[in-house]
Amino acid sequence: MTKIERVCVVGAGTIGSLFAGYLGSVVEIMVLTRREEHAQALNQHGLRVTGQAELHTRVTASTDPAELKDPNLVIIATKAFSVESSAQKIQGYFPNAHVLMVQNGLGCEEIVKRYGNWPIISGVSFMSGTRHSDTHVEYELDTPTWIGPWAGSNATYEYVLQVASLINHSGLKAAAYRDLLPHQWSKLIFNSAINSITAVTDLPHVKAFAKEDTIADLGNLVHAMMDEAKSIATERGVSLADDPWEMNVKAVGQGVTGGDTYAHIPSMLADVRNRHQTEIDWITGAIVREAAKAEMPAPYHETLYRLVKAREASWSLSINKMSNHSADKEGIDC
Amino acid sequence: MTKIERVCVVGAGTIGSLFAGYLGSVVEIMVLTRREEHAQALNQHGLRVTGQAELHTRVTASTDPAELKDPNLVIIATKAFSVESSAQKIQGYFPNAHVLMVQNGLGCEEIVKRYGNWPIISGVSFMSGTRHSDTHVEYELDTPTWIGPWAGSNATYEYVLQVASLINHSGLKAAAYRDLLPHQWSKLIFNSAINSITAVTDLPHVKAFAKEDTIADLGNLVHAMMDEAKSIATERGVSLADDPWEMNVKAVGQGVTGGDTYAHIPSMLADVRNRHQTEIDWITGAIVREAAKAEMPAPYHETLYRLVKAREASWSLSINKMSNHSADKEGIDC
Description:
Rossmann fold
């Protein structure tokens, strides 16, 4: 196997910047950006990481893959809905590279495969951070990225081990798995319920998500939705690494005992609050598609999927842009 | 039967003010208010109606039922969640009155019955308006109020006819039914789906609510939810006056042909936008309770019920009050 000496990160949002900033201490880093001024800023100032570490990395950035040297590894770090345009952009380039994907949800690998024969490594990341500028990212949640060969391509477990070793060597954390699906699905099922419910209720992930005392309690919905997805996973031949309901109970139980200090704002709720397109099609929408493949009913996932899509649609409705939120206009009509 | 000569309106919000303003032209009107300054303003300035008519009515208002003369008819016009405190307030008073209820949803009559032996008339109103001040209401949607004797009390259809006649004589519209349930349930099922979905998507009632072309389309959810409620109605022995799905298709088809001009903001969406408590417990929650009585599953209604309750809960969460909606803080974690 060729030693990994050069890595190209596609998309330098929060996660892409973290990979580029850390990996820059052990290999040569290139960054493919969407915006010209972003590439210029990176070439001029390099990339600064604060938070869990203080790093300053030189990078070579461009909006054109033809201007970048041939990498051994490409990390596609854009949001799920931008993967297709990223793959289109690198079509015909980087013939010797493996591609590592770190999007939420399911289905991005199939998209990349349509644009090239790169061996593909699937990834599940739990890192989080704050992007302060085009050249400065703060690393917050210092958690491992799980990676494994995607079964739809010819990536090998041995190469995955090499990538994991590189990531760990850089100061980030990675764990390699021969079969990533049990991990990918555990996180998918957890995210599908928690993200979509926070997105339509505006309620962060708090204790209420595990409360099942009365019929009105939200935990009943979370539980029913996760049970539905678990049946679909079983039917699709996937056994889960972790139980999503236990992940949920454990997460909201964090913080001071008996207190209400845990209140996490999932990425989809952040997207909705900022009126940014969400990744619903790759998360809850992915489970709806898997249910269809298994010819199984999925009323809970279909419901949350449609609600989040409708919420996104509300942003482009002209009446919502100009609506007056008068407190006194009302009626019994409906 | 005693002629109706004196009417007491309990709660002078938009609907209560419309009843008081119109009925004041044909009978003596009293208004029971929650706030002292509201009663004083009404006693001093009377009640002005604009919009569909120009009226100015003298009323006698008070926060204390002991200060009001004995009415023949009491109209409880508060929101569903305030009916209990209204009933408590008039407990022991108005022994010769019938009580007319005009709340959304189901279940308010049972509450009133616990506080007195008044014969109860159920009502379904579609009126709407804008309340400009404590003494000025604008009448907008000029639609009939449907009324009928509530089976749980000894109100007669003959008396209901008399009340309908009075309302029609005043300039408002009313229609009397021997059995109101088929009408009440048609509106309930329509409202349960449309109101709750608008409340969590922030999308007004628009054409998307009737679109069923792809799996992501919202019309699929509306349809499934209405079918679920129709089965519950059948099991509870109620045959519907109108098909809720047809009501939905017809409503969003209004306006310019092919255009998107119809965009109604239901009361529950208005409540959510203003962070006012919604009537979810009496609308979607009522169908959840009826399903339990019929020992039937109600996954769609339970889901929307829990989501709207969670949305209400989000308003009192301290993290939401102080949350910063930063666009750049994000992660892949969930």
